[in-house]
From TrEMBL:
InterPro entries: FAS1_dom_sf (IPR036378), FAS1_domain (IPR000782), Fasciclin-like_AGP (IPR052806). Gene3D superfamilies: FAS1 domain. This is FAS1 domain-containing protein. Residues 43-176 form the FAS1 domain. Belongs to the fasciclin-like AGP family.
Length: 211
């Protein structure tokens, strides 16, 4: 009996030591894969800085302070469509917090699409682009006259605002509306005011139609 009692702690310790070793290795592998195949904190900070320097301050703040940041860090690649400040401010002042958060998710697609990819949307993913908002997709339309790219009825005004290994950001003229099929475009005066306070695009920046 005494022999069994003395042998129990060693067996107990050995089993749990093996168990925790396996768990630790699993977490380490998961962390390594996530870091290798997803965005890093450094990439997100660089993206946020690019948003601010181009005048999309509220969207930058929204990403930094919401669960979107953790979603992006969890792995994968993403395309973000940044609405102008006045549109997000209006949404924030007139909507419930849950609607605001849903709208943010509606502006993120779970794949990396630079400007040329948007221009070639039909071949890559068809007319509709999935978003982080369940059961909600974005209609992508390429213009035939002005070569503009329209997403959910809103013009992509600053394509390739940020290009990273796992993240791409495009600036918008308006905002995507969750409870409607199309987004809304702002009044002309509002857009002029927005562009007046917006920083210069990155060097060599092209319109999406020129890609």
């Amino acid at each position: 009996m005494m022999k069994r009692l003395l042998s129990f702690p060693a067996k107990f310790t050995g089993e749990y030591s093996t168990f925790f070793t396996v768990i630790a290795l699993t977490l380490l592998i998961s962390a390594t894969i996530g870091h290798k195949n997803g965005a890093t904190e450094e990439e997100i900070e660089t993206m946020i800085s690019s948003l601010r320097s181009n005048g999309f301050d509220l969207f930058a703040t929204a990403i930094a302070s919401s669960n979107l940041r953790f979603h992006i860090l969890a792995g994968g690649s993403y395309t973000l469509f940044a609405p102008p400040d006045f549109a997000l401010r209006s949404l924030h002042e007139s909507s419930h917090a849950s609607v605001y958060l849903h709208t943010l998710h509606y502006h993120v697609a779970p794949r990396r699409l630079a400007c040329p990819d948007l221009r070639n949307s039909s071949a890559l993913f068809g007319p509709y682009l999935d978003t982080l908002l369940p059961r909600r997709s974005l209609l992508v339309v390429n213009g035939t006259v002005l070569d503009d790219v329209m997403v959910a009825g809103v013009r992509v005004s600053v394509p390739d605002l940020y290009l990273g290994p796992n993240i791409v950001v495009h600036g918008l003229d308006g905002i995507f509306v969750v409870d409607g099929k199309l987004g809304f475009a702002p009044p002309v005066n509002a857009m002029k005011k927005q562009r007046k306070h917006r920083g210069k695009p990155r060097h060599g920046h092209l319109d999406c139609g020129e890609a």
